[in-house]
Amino acid sequence: MKRLALLVLVLVTLTGCAAIPTNTQPKPIGSKDSKATNTFSAPEPRQNIDSFTLVRDFIEATSNPDSDYAAARAFLTPEAGKKWDTKNPTIIETSFATVPTSQAPQDKTQIVMLQGKYVGRLGNDNAFTPQLGDFQRQVKLERNSENQWRISEPPPGVFIPLSLFNSNYRRVTLYFYNPEFTVLVPDPRYVVIPPATSIPTRVTELMIKGPGDAVRDTLVSSLGPETDSFSETKESDDGALEVNLTKVGKDLTPEKRKQIVAQVVKSYSGVTSSRVRVLVDGQQILPDQRDYRPSDVSATAGEALLALNANLQGMLVVDGSIRSLTDGNPIKGPAGAGAYGAVSAAQSLDGSRLAVVSRSGGGMRLRVGELEQDLSEVVDLRATSLTRPTWQLSTDPKEPGNEVWTVMDSASVARVTRSDNGTWSAKGVNVTDIAPFGAISELRLSRDGTRAALVIAGKLYVASVVRNNQDVALRSPRQLQPSTLGSSVQSIDWLSQDVLVVSSSMPSLPVTRVYTDGYKLDRYSQSNLTVPVSSVAAAAARQVQVIDPSGLWSASDITDVWKASAIRVSPGALVFYPG
């Protein structure tokens, strides 16, 4: 239909696109009862090409998953086609090689070596996971009855060159709730593009399956475990995108219905600009409204919890004093007067509380309290070093933060919580999954509280925050942009729920923007900056602030030239926004 042209199909060179199921046809991903039929006719490989070219053509053909990779299977012998495993495709760099092996070629058989570099892989959940390193795989070929080369032993799995992955798949962002159902959290996946009219149905099927593997124990869905598609997700005659569900659960309360609507509408916000109509068994899910746009669900999505107050302009730590980023003047109270000899600090999301790391007796201490008042020392938290603090999301926009995290002695993660009587005490966080990676120099909780970004041995990692009653752990860690950033990372902050701003010691990459699934990296301008960029502050709808050896700089977008601030900062200064 004409209005389906409203689907957002803009591809950016490095935009992530999508994983595909084992049997990907022009039908919903993971569809339980799709009636789509196999209509794809795969072309035969070019006649009389050499074995090396045939292997290259085969790899390029794997970018087309129609009819269970029929285009790629045309390069295989019938026996090999039956055995070839197409689960969990692997993305490789566009430049790959097909080279001879040490074995002498035979008239009827030959072995070609496939060589290249990994970029990442797609899991069963259609999510991207970065993968580092070189690979080489033997590919065995034999001549068929027409004396044409065909692959008798293909490499295990599907290998897709990055450029073709970008052209044939696209990134979609699903949304699920934090465990308290107070805020929606992005969960990026990847879907095959053609045919474009099937993308909405694919998104529905992925949403029904629930959170991805990395956040399965962190996020929750408003949809019941038995939820299914009542009918195909498509545009109605009046232009609304109809998402028709069934088996969503019995005795749905009005609040639960609102949560379902918010989750569905947000998950389609990057897929269509049409109105979204949420139905259950063909009936309108809420009686008071039929169609929705993202702005209609902002309250249920918890956007107010994440939005920074316009009056909170950020702060600096300069020469032991906490100062305003607005004018560089000390804030009111002992922290601004330099009473604590601050090394680093963090302001709660609502702005009312402050956590300060200070030197004391040859070690570091954490002090927490009301912004302009005396800060209490956390007596059960003593360490040789503490990373700059980071605040956990509160449960209400007007409620002060009650939990702050820091890393002790580069190894142990502590979360400091406030009791009913106003005292602050430290509790441990299980870091078994990240401990083998090395020393932790920085940790930042996402402002929705569900992910943690870490700098470990100079490398960038993201882990999921898993809460099980009083037990809290960092799980499913993954290194982001390992081949690009290496071990040069200096400072990190959250620009949005699924995007980080990262500073480094590399002259070519002083500041970058990195997506939390690790697929995409954008370079900020290098103009005016000097490495290392030691501190970075980022937040939605705010300028990115960084500190390098020459001072404090700001930029609004990746193409902006960095502008110098009139505020003078000394070496070791730190800049931060609430969070």
Please tell me about this protein's structure.
Helix content is 12%, strand content 36%. It contains nine helices and 38 strands.
- Cα gyration radius (Å): 26 Å
* Oligomer classification: single chain
Helicity level, as a percent range? 10-25%
Span from first to last CA?
45 Å
Low-confidence stretches: 1-38
Protein name: LpqB family beta-propeller domain-containing protein
Domain GerMN: 200-289
InterPro entries: GerMN, LpqB_C, LpqB_N
Signal peptide: 1-18
Spell out the blueprint of helices and strands:
Layout: H1 51-61, H2 66-73, H3 78-83, E1 90-92, E2 97-100, E3 109-122, E4 128-130, E5 134-143, E6 149-153, E7 159-161, H4 162-168, E8 169-177, E9 184-192, H5 199-209, E10 228-229, E11 234-235, E12 241-246, H6 254-267, E13 276-280, E14 283-284, E15 291-292, H7 303-306, E16 315-318, E17 321-324, H8 334-337, E18 342-347, E19 353-360, E20 363-370, E21 376-383, E22 390-391, E23 403-408, E24 412-418, E25 424-429, E26 440-445, E27 451-456, E28 459-468, E29 471-479, H9 482-485, E30 489-496, E31 499-504, E32 511-515, E33 521-523, E34 535-537, E35 544-548, E36 551-555, E37 563-564, E38 574-576
Parallel strand pairs: 1-7, 12-13
Antiparallel strand pairs: 1-3, 2-3, 3-4, 3-5, 5-6, 8-9, 10-12, 11-12, 13-14, 13-15, 16-17, 16-38, 18-19, 19-20, 20-21, 22-23, 23-24, 24-25, 26-27, 27-28, 28-29, 30-31, 31-32, 32-33, 34-35, 35-36, 36-37
